[in-house]
Write a structure and sequence with these properties.
elongated, mainly alpha, 2 helices
Amino acid sequence: MSLNKYLEDVINAALLLKAEESLEEHQECLSAAVSDLIKAGAPVSEIARAAYISGHAHCGLEIVND
């Protein structure tokens, strides 16, 4: 395995771990952001947009709080 591939794998693993931790921490907020849209039968694109915005906002808050 080349050094570049190894570093790429390490970076991807770190990003995946951070994403999983963030999802666990903010799962309730994410559910609240999309649950009404799901119940209303909103299109998938609108639900995905709400989930993205919710995640983006929480990412910003984590950066500010760190």
